[in-house]
Amino acid sequence: MKIIKKRAPKKKDVVESEEIRGIVHDISSKVGQTLERNRLIAVVSIALLVILSGAGVAYYYLAQKWDQEASLMENSAYNYYLEGNYKEALSKYQEIVTDYSSTKSMPVAMYYTGNSHLGLGQTDQAIEAYQKFIEKCRDQDTTRPLVYMNLGYAYMNKKDYSNALSAFKEASTLKNSLVTDRAIYEIARTYEITGDKVSAIEKYESLVKTFPNSPWREDAAAKLNKMQGSTGGAVKEQPQDKTDNTKVPNSQEGK
C-alpha cells in the first residue's frame, strides 16, 4: 500500500494565513470598539433625555407658580389703581415687570405702569412706559390700541400735538382695535386744537357716518355743527379725561 505523505505548508501560505487572522482580529476589535462607543453614546443620550425631561417638568411647575404669584400681585395692584392709590399700584406693577417678566401678567403690568404714572402726573415716565410696552409686547393685539391712546393723551399733556396725532392714528388703524371710534374723535379734536379746521371736520364727519352707535358720535356731531357754522380759527382746548381706563382683561381670565 502506497503511503501518502502530507505536504508541509509553504512559508508563503503560513504568512498569508497569519495576515488574514490579523485582519480579522483588527476588524473584530474595531467593531467591538464601535459598539462600545455607540453603547456609551446611547447611555449618555438617554441620561440627557431624562435630565432634560425632568428639567422641563420642573420649569413647567415653576412657571405655573410664578404665574399664580404674579396674578395675585396684579389683582392687588389693580385694586389700588381703582382706589386712586397710584403710588402703591405703580410699586406693585413695577415689581411684576421686574421680577415676573416671563409671566402672563407682565404685559398688563407694563400697561398699568404707564397709566399709574399718568395718574401721578408723571407724563415723561408714562410715555417711557408706553413706549417700552409697544417695543416688547408686539403680540398684545387687544391692549396695544389702548396703549397708543394713552400715549396720545400723554403727548397732549405736553402739548406735543404731532406725536399725539401719530399715537391716535396708530390706535385707530391697529387690528382688533376696540377704540377706533374714540381714536378718530381724538384725531379730530387734536386737529381742531391746532387750527386745522378742514382736517378736523373731515374726521368728525367720518366718525358720525362710520360709527352711528359710538358714544362719541353725539359730541362729534355737535362739534361738527359748531365748526361748520363758524368762521373762527383754532378753538380753545376743552378739559378732557386724559386716560383711557378701559379695563384690560386679567391675565388669568378665560382660562
Could you describe the 3D structure shown?
Helix content is 72%, strand content 0%. By secondary structure, it is an all-alpha fold. It has a domain at 57-228: Tetratricopeptide repeat domain (Serine Threonine Protein Phosphatase 5, Tetratricopeptide repeat). Helix 2 (86-99) packs antiparallel against helix 3 (106-119) and helix 3 packs antiparallel against helix 4 (123-136). The longest helix has 73 residues, at 11-83. The termini are far apart. Residues 231-241 have low confidence and may be disordered.
Topology readout:
Blueprint: H1 11-83, H2 86-99, H3 106-119, H4 123-136, H5 143-157, H6 161-173, H7 180-193, H8 197-210, H9 217-228
Helix pairs in contact: 1-2, 1-3, 2-3, 3-4, 3-5, 4-5, 5-6, 6-7, 7-8, 8-9
Keywords:
elongated; 72% helix; mainly alpha; 255 residues; single chain
With helices defined by DSSP (H or I, 4 residues minimum), what is the helix count? 9
* Element order: H for helix, E for strand: HHHHHHHHH
Give the overall average pLDDT. Answer: 82
Going by CATH, the architecture of the domain at 57-228 would be: Alpha Horseshoe
